[in-house]
Amino acid sequence: TRRHAVTLGAAAGISAALPLRYARAAEFSFKWGTNVPEAHPLNVYGRKAAEALTQATNGRVELRLFPNNQLGGDADMLSQVRSGALECFSLSGVNVLSTMLPASAISGVGFAFKDYPMLWNAMDGKLGAWLRGQINKAGLVAMEKIWDNGFRQVTTSTRPIVKPEDFRGLKIRVPVSSLWTSLFQGLGASPTGLNFAEVYTALQTKVVDAQENPPAIIAASKFYEVQKYCSLTNHMWDGWWFLMNRRAWGQLPPDLQETFAKVVNAAAVAEREEVARQNENLKAELAQKGLIFNAVDPEPFRMMLSNAGFYKNWKAKFGPEAWALLEESTGPLS
Ligand code: X2X
């Protein structure tokens, strides 16, 4: 049987030949774009999901992963997944998705989530369900489990961030997003919105002196080559929704939709564990590569944001319903 052949192939370590083991071409072949390098767990677990999906559907559904902005930058991939040129795209709700759907940025409010239990309780609970509903209304499909990127840390080539004043005038890259821009303006920095594909070069050529991302990305994207300090600000959490073009999703019959969702969501849950592990363990490895780490007390930074009117302004923008859902998980934010 086909299944038997797959097992033998896997045991023999043959994976490049996978499609040949199926007599017919896949009935449904979906491209999946991501914005981070091959080595990042998003792609490692993405590849596992693609293999599992081929097996679980006997080759009927094929997921072809294109990591590292191979299909274009964040904004390009978003328009492609909206038009149907791309079927699947992993995108943060706080990133360019929020330019078409402002509500999707609410998970990125500064210093909102203290830890992972608080975060998953929200994203796997009512807040996540509400956000997927919004994404759906905007014409895209979001799989239930959001993939982890992690709590974000600031790297710079100039100075460590120890107290809020250290942000003053700092040229820092942020994703193209008004929430991100306002967060760093509130902290006194000079943020520039850039798609992720442009970040390494922008740091290398000193167009910006800083960026902010979790250790797993700092390692996978080799930012340690062009940055000197990493300050553990934990200023916000971020993750990737697995977004799909609605027509592509609708092509799958219900049983295949169910299998697809099950496989992709299971991979997301496994990816979360690996990302959390890496974001903790990679610090030692990055320090060996020359990155200088420092711990940060978040409270003065949160106070500064609060004094800048950040929470008041964003509460008004997101509206009472969304804000109440957020605060249900985080406690009062002001
Ligand atoms: O663009 C970024 O910094 C990244 C990779 O973390 C996101 O996708 C938000």
Automatic annotation (TrEMBL):
Coiled coil region boundaries: none
Main location, first listed in the record: other
Similarity remark: Belongs to the bacterial solute-binding protein 7 family.
InterPro entries referenced in this protein's UniProt entry, alphabetically: DctP_fam, TAT_signal, TRAP_DctP, TRAP_DctP_sf
Subcellular location: Cell envelope
Gene3D superfamilies from the UniProt entry: Bacterial extracellular solute-binding protein, family 7 (3.40.190.170)
Signal as UniProt keyword: yes
Top-rank taxon: Bacteria
Lineage of source species: Bacteria, Pseudomonadati, Pseudomonadota, Alphaproteobacteria, Hyphomicrobiales
Keyword Ligase: no
Keywords: Signal, Transport
Protein name: TRAP transporter substrate-binding protein
Record GO biological process: transmembrane transport
Gene Ontology terms: cellular component: outer membrane-bounded periplasmic space
